[in-house]
Amino acid sequence: MPHSDLSFMHPFFLGAYAENDHVFEKTLLEFLRDHAYWRRNFHPENRPPIPTNAPYREDYNEFLAQMQQELHTLSADLKKSVPFFSPRYMGHMAADLLLPGVLAQIMTILYNPNNVSDDAAPATLAKELEVGTQLARMFGYNTDPSEEPCAWGHLTSGGTVANYEGIWNLRSVRFYPLSLAQAVKDLGIKLPDVGPKNQQLDQYSKWELFNLSIRDTILLMRKVTAHVKEEYEKKQFQAFSEAVIKESVAHLGMAGFFLRHPEIKQPKLVIPQSAHYSWEKAMKILGMGTAHIEKIRTDVHMRMEISHLKEVIEEHYQQQIPVLGMIGVLGSTEFGSVDPIHKMVEVRDEYAAKGFYFGIHVDAAWGGYMTSLFRLPDGGFVPHEDVCKEFKYFPHKGTWQAFKAVSEADSITIDPHKLGYLPFPCGAFVSKDSGVLDFISQKAAYVFDVKEDPLKKPAAKKLLGLGQYIMEGSKPGSAAAAAYVTHRCIPLHNEGFGRIMAHSMRACEYFYDKLMDVRRHLKELVTITIPFTPDTNLVCFAINPKGNPHLALLNHFSRKVFQHMKINPQQPLQAHDFFGSFTSLSKDALTDEDAARIFEELGINGDTFCHHVTDRTRESDHIYLIRHTLMNPWLMYEDNGMNYIDRYCAFLFRAIKTEMGRAIGRG
Amino acid sequence: MPHSDLSFMHPFFLGAYAENDHVFEKTLLEFLRDHAYWRRNFHPENRPPIPTNAPYREDYNEFLAQMQQELHTLSADLKKSVPFFSPRYMGHMAADLLLPGVLAQIMTILYNPNNVSDDAAPATLAKELEVGTQLARMFGYNTDPSEEPCAWGHLTSGGTVANYEGIWNLRSVRFYPLSLAQAVKDLGIKLPDVGPKNQQLDQYSKWELFNLSIRDTILLMRKVTAHVKEEYEKKQFQAFSEAVIKESVAHLGMAGFFLRHPEIKQPKLVIPQSAHYSWEKAMKILGMGTAHIEKIRTDVHMRMEISHLKEVIEEHYQQQIPVLGMIGVLGSTEFGSVDPIHKMVEVRDEYAAKGFYFGIHVDAAWGGYMTSLFRLPDGGFVPHEDVCKEFKYFPHKGTWQAFKAVSEADSITIDPHKLGYLPFPCGAFVSKDSGVLDFISQKAAYVFDVKEDPLKKPAAKKLLGLGQYIMEGSKPGSAAAAAYVTHRCIPLHNEGFGRIMAHSMRACEYFYDKLMDVRRHLKELVTITIPFTPDTNLVCFAINPKGNPHLALLNHFSRKVFQHMKINPQQPLQAHDFFGSFTSLSKDALTDEDAARIFEELGINGDTFCHHVTDRTRESDHIYLIRHTLMNPWLMYEDNGMNYIDRYCAFLFRAIKTEMGRAIGRG
């Protein structure tokens, strides 16, 4: 298949020209009618409550007329929407939607299932859990419940909530051994030898207990619980269960827990400098505090710098400051850069062997679906040299290794509403080990019957009361249907979803090369710099007028160029030929080295990059970048010998020339 | 209008028989085509990327065939769905959906706006904020930005997240004065007299600072910030800002904050016994800990018992234990009971005058929309005697007062996807004072340009970067469109939404009376007890075979009866004539008094109600109840002289007789 052959995607989307409207309309109508007749045939013997003469009544028609008017207004307003569907849009992480997903979602909305429990979603809750399994399989997790650990996953309203759950899950498991030990001690419970060292629980130090692995903690919990249940009377068992709960961080809170265990320092969360802002939000909201974030420098590719990670980890190890977990980013929001997950796993394993443990959560909100490009239909991982054949640059060996190593992480965030080309809301949280479920469950009498012993239930059965194990409550079954049907139609491996991802990567490589051409052609006029060569399908660049040494002016100029591609609700969409987005690199986000490298390329005087700006005409505390996401399926579509990237580059060329002309005109 | 006249609702819903399918189909088709032609006319000069001969290709058709098959499977599966649309369903909090809402949502999905910022949702973000204003107005908050405090609100994925935001907002504001004082002290900043006592900041004790009201805190922040900005150099101002952040709970975390301020005890959250389980989840997830929940007993109506509240508050006041906030429930999940918000407000005001302050958040996830029944189109509140005219029992004077007093609370949770008859996901958080925004904002360089001074921006402008002020990130503009259009078509006052609510209440009153009839008719066979007379539109009851003193048997029998109305995906939906839901009252949830009262009515020996069950055939730790939500619009529709409630009661009568027959048969 030649790389410019987009034919495989022809039936996937509604299309930039709504070419597949016949399919969409026919299918939607079919299922809408199907739904209507389902209602009608539920109890056909009953008379319909809305009488057949209702449409002849004035008040009935008045309401419909008003509704029509309101909907017309909405429809008119929606015409100001960002044209995500068009290859002229290369801004935020959105594009056209996959037909099976939109159709499934709309169809399901009519039934309005609530995936909080199977009671309210007999059809779609199972689909949500199956989506979790589909995603887990793509990432290389075990999904066979007869083997442990077995993965599970579910949908969230977005990646932000999935990130919160990543920390919440880690906290719930990792704080448990201390609570257990305290309860056992207080109640004078006699236990056999337990834990990885196979010794008495009170022989473990608090530091050791805080550094048990997730799996060891699960096994410890099961062994101790089973023992107490067997050896003690029911009342004592209940007293024991209650004591463990009373000692938990969920009960004591963060402050209560650390006041109770002053020997243990508050744990850190280790994230790369490039992590999404929701990680800071997470630490604020979860009561952990951003002071307990340890940021790792990024390298010249905006990837986590492993030497710095090792330094930080060693320092924490020396000082016995626990690390709750490390976040690896698989496709950063700004640059699409991919952290070396494989090296993070090595670091984890190295320190785990020394009794210093931390979880790994991969934030693959953006890049998660790219994994499909490496995954073989039989579950294998495509060898590096085979992947390389399809691309000019992609994937860097480390990128390939990073994707491969995700299966070694404890949990993952992925956003089907990003590179899964599905409608909002559709985020997902995937966990390697469903054994964690027992540490996070809630009780809600009105949804879940209270008769059962939770430890004996298999995960699949527990999860019928999904609301017990997640942050959210009521949630749309329609999102689950959308993701499920899409993954069934376009499977998450290199012959399915991987082809869309590969196409997107090729478009990005093409974009990169073309931008380099523009740069060459304009080199007498401006300097264009891509501060970080893309790992995936995002490109950011800065534009500096030749001879300008002031960062403030660079930013001013880049903003001016961006005006040519900015969504402006006051203007018709057609006023601009292309659309992009922007980002800023703040001083904190860059190492001095990186800043120096970027400024050298741009000809900027590094002294004009400062935290506290005093001269607004020269200095700035950030570098303004134009940012493009290359995910639209039709970017490489050629018309009259030019594809949309060619056209964009010509457009950018003109925009820069225009702005330079204006700048010179102004003197 | 006679109470059984349902004609005003005829055009509101698709209908139990999909009677309005013609409207639905026509409108949907119109807007689907409109969307398709919008795409087509975006750049009609470009050739469509999907060629016109695509439909003749084999692979194209193969994919569509597969998609069709998957969608057919989904459609078939969805036929197992809970028939929320039908008046035969009286289970969980779901019913048919309002036409304007479903249509707006589906239409908007095609454009797929992301309400995280106006950049990705130029049309729908404003609608989301307007929905916030519509709701705020219904609750009686000021929404005129020229007056302070001015309310704001936004949508969440559900009530659970809105509840989290309630605590998070309170925490962010209330912890601030301590952080401020610390930063001022550490930097030796000179201030004028500030705060409600108009004195030097260091003259306030920590206890006083922790007990400033929300409004006083906002004013303090503004005054101090403006002063430092004016009187100090820029660098010093920046150092000051950073110091305040460094001292914040968001930065220090809960543990860090209380280690730093050992003089202040960890604050409590006061909730009624009847509060939704998401409040405990909130305390766990936010790192506050369920140990810091203070549960208030409920009275014989399952409403917060104010005498107990006062005791608890007085105790905390005496012991100087801060109270972060009190949660008032406006329509509990299990019983629809309404807490006396007006009395909570009195308690707050009384203690605020003594320098002991706490916020009030109203969890109106269920009952919020009922407010429309009391709200006049001109913004006034319908007098109690006028509301009473429309009902037999509703509203109890206290219920009326409670609804009226919601405008005195600080923030509110409401779920448009419950009594707003809108599709999932659609929760909402409404805050009385948009001044709180400055305490919770995040920064995200890639979404928000970094040039502006946040304090100078009006709230409406800040909120264009909505993601900075909420827990979630990406979020569906489609939900906003649904709520907005619905509220435009059916306004949130007693001539709009209030009529639907009134109808639901009347159905509930009718249900209650009819159930009493069943009870009378069956009194020789079983005892039916409604443990809490409904405040709104939910009814729960227990059924005990005559002469049985054992709770375990009552539960067993009630479960058996419930089997007659339980959704069972293994059976055709028609296998059952009606559907309900169930709940359990655990021992912790009841006062001994209440338990005694209920058991006396039921003829149960209270000794069989115990925490630790030893004899499963007699004892139980919960009371099993059948639970009905009376929200379907067609419950009162009469056919052959019987409405659906009459039919249900006949059905229940038969089910009980059948189960009694079986029980006797078994001996």
From TrEMBL, chains A, B:
PROSITE patterns: DDC_GAD_HDC_YDC. The keyword Ligase does not apply. Transmembrane segments: none annotated. Its cofactor is pyridoxal 5'-phosphate. GO terms for biological process: carboxylic acid metabolic process. Keywords: Lyase, Pyridoxal phosphate. The modification N6-(pyridoxal phosphate)lysine is found at residue 418. InterPro entries: GrpII_AminoAcid_Decarb, PyrdxlP-dep_de-COase, PyrdxlP-dep_Trfase, PyrdxlP-dep_Trfase_major, Pyridoxal-P_BS. One of its GO terms (molecular function) is pyridoxal phosphate binding. PANTHER family: PTHR42735, PYRIDOXAL PHOSPHATE-DEPENDENT DECARBOXYLASE FAMILY PROTEIN (PTHR42735:SF4). This is Pyridoxal-dependent decarboxylase. It comes from Acanthopleuribacter pedis.
